[in-house]
Amino acid sequence: MSVRRKKKRSSFSVKRWKGHRYQNRCVSLGMDKPHFAFFLDPGLGKTTIILQILKMLLLSGDVKAMLVVAPLRPCYMVWPKEVKKWANFCHLSVGILHGNNKAKVLGEKHDIYVINPEGLPWLITQLKGHKKKDWPFNMLTVDESTKFKNLTSGRTKNIKKMLAGFDRRYILTGTPTPNGLLNIQSQIMICDGGKALGTTKTGYHEKYFRPVGKPEWRQFELQSKKSADEIYECIAHLCVRLSADKNLKGLPKKIDNLIEIDLPPKARKIYKQLEKELFTELENGEAITALSASAKRIKCVQLANGCVYEDIDPTEDVAPKDRKVFKIHEAKLDALQDLCEELDGKPILIAYWFKHDLDALKKRFGSKLKVLGSNMAECVQIEKDWNAGKIEMLAAQPSSAALGLNLQDCGSDIFWYSMIDDWEAYDQYIKRILRQGNKNKSVRNHVCIAKGTLDQYMYNRLQEKEGEQVNFFNGVLGFLNKLLVK
User: Fold this and answer.
1) Residue 51 near residue 89, CB atoms below 8 Å
2) Is 319 helix (H, G, I), strand (E, B) or coil?
């Protein structure tokens, strides 16, 4: 084991972290409660709250080190960066358990070890045979806990095996129930081991929900409003909820701008035929076929954006890399170009989903368009260039860019080229810009949808999911206030 080295830093180059009132309150709660959930909006400083808790516990001798489980991008771009940013925490050592040197890093002495969920099986193997008291860490923080929203998933089963080895367990997220209360059980289980909502999916479902729909499309809905209240009451003592708009002064106002486009007549005809018959023929004689309802849904979403992939050979397990793309229309590209001309050079963040969406964007906008990919070093530089005002157009996929990026220093416009129905990814993506530090009075969220297509359904579904999230927060806050009164 190597000795932890403290790096000296000049006092004028690194500023000290001074918590807002709400952050200091969260630190106090974390110190008092060894198992706790911080449901804080992006931008409220969840990372620094945990760092302050860790620092105090290290000083008191109650904790020897912390394991952070987070998506890969925050592992590289959030935790090490926040530690270096503040004079209070820059003496803390961070070890990233990823890549070829992860075994070496685990053998070193660090205050913070960070690992992505996919790395947990490796870590469990490394710790096997060691008594839990001999583990290098005894405090666990799960950053973006919705990655563990499914109680029966492999990653949740992996982390469940490790829970007994941690004296303190915290979870962090701004969107704990992106698809309703079914998502909350396993996250709370990480905190309390299942005391509040149980340890089995079946038991949780039978107590609070009822099945609806055909067996092959089985869904669950709450038995009644009373069931929701019972869940809120069970977990209120385990969590705190804080919203950005109520706790941060001067936060920009979000303005939704719905840009509705009409599909060109030929594209409309193709869309309607595919939607109705699972088959359509293009003018060049090529055919587009959807082999199932789910395949039809994907192709209809693609078509609304402007392009459709050729059919996959049903005998092939993986789609070929050089898969042909049929170009149907450019209505969304035209809408984006009109908006960019209106913005006259102001930075804009563009959300796309399919690779052919990105290819179409590159072809239309050329070198003006920068793309956020998976290379961490490139991501760090792109984030820096964006915040310095050096990038006019930045394209990023919500599933990969929704977490771990701080783009609030420059830009106040977001454009949804591809519509999605994942509320968590949608909300988190917007809050890469709509967060503390953005000096603009408003952030404009431009949502481009093709009228009469699945775009409209997905947009409406997002509004419903937002309402479900608000109901959860209000319900938890109601019972939490009752506890405080007692």
Assistant:
1) yes
2) coil
Q: In sequence order, what are the residues at sequence separation of 6 or more whose Cβ sits closer than 8 angstroms to the Cβ of residue 277? A: none
Are 145 and 68 within 8 A, CB to CB? no
Residue matched to tokens 């490394």: 126
Closest listed residue to residue 223, CA positions, set 181, 177, 175? 181
pLDDT of residue 435: 86
The residues that bridge with 173 in the sheet, in sequence order, are 39
Distance in angstroms (rounded) separating the CA atoms of residues 352 and 361: 9
Backbone angles phi, psi at 448, to 5 degrees: -95, 115
Residues 77/380, Cβ–Cβ less than 8 Å: yes
Contacts of 182 (CB under 8 A, 6+ apart): 205, 209, 220
Rounded CA gap, 327 and 278, in Å? Answer: 18
Mean pLDDT of the 222-229 span: 92
**Pair 479, 233: CB distance under 8 Å:** yes
pLDDT tens track for 72-113: 989 998 999 999 999 999 999 999 999 999 999 999 999 999
Q: Is the pLDDT of residue 479 over 60?
A: yes
- DSSP string spanning 392-446? SEEEE-HHHHSSS---TTS--EEEESS----HHHHHHHHTTTSSTT--SSEEEEE
**Averaged over 336-361, what is the pLDDT?**
95
- Choose between 28 and 380: higher pLDDT: 28
Q: Answer whether residue 456 shows pLDDT above 90.
A: yes
Residue 360 has pLDDT above 70, yes or no: yes
Give the angle subtended at the CA of 193 by the CAs of 188 and 199, to the nearest 5°: 80
Q: For 83-93, what is each residue's pLDDT tens digit?
A: 999 999 999 99
Task: Please give the helix or strand (H or E) that residue 39 lies within, else none.
Answer: strand 35-40
Q: Residue 56 belongs to what H/E stretch?
A: helix 46-60
Q: What is the mean pLDDT of residues 130-149?
A: 95
pLDDT of residue 402: 62
**pLDDT at residue 318 above 60?**
no
Q: How far apart are CA 204 and CA 27, in angstroms?
A: 31
CATH architecture assignment, domain 250-263+329-451:
3-Layer(aba) Sandwich (3.40)
Q: Are 75 and 142 in contact (CB under 8 A)?
A: no
Q: What is the dihedral of CA 239, 244, 246, 251, to 10 degrees?
A: 170
Asked if the domains at 21-246+472-485 and 250-263+329-451 fall in one CATH topology, the answer is yes
Q: Which CATH number fits domain 21-246+472-485: 3.40.50.80, 3.40.50.10810, 2.40.128.20, 3.30.450.20?
A: 3.40.50.10810
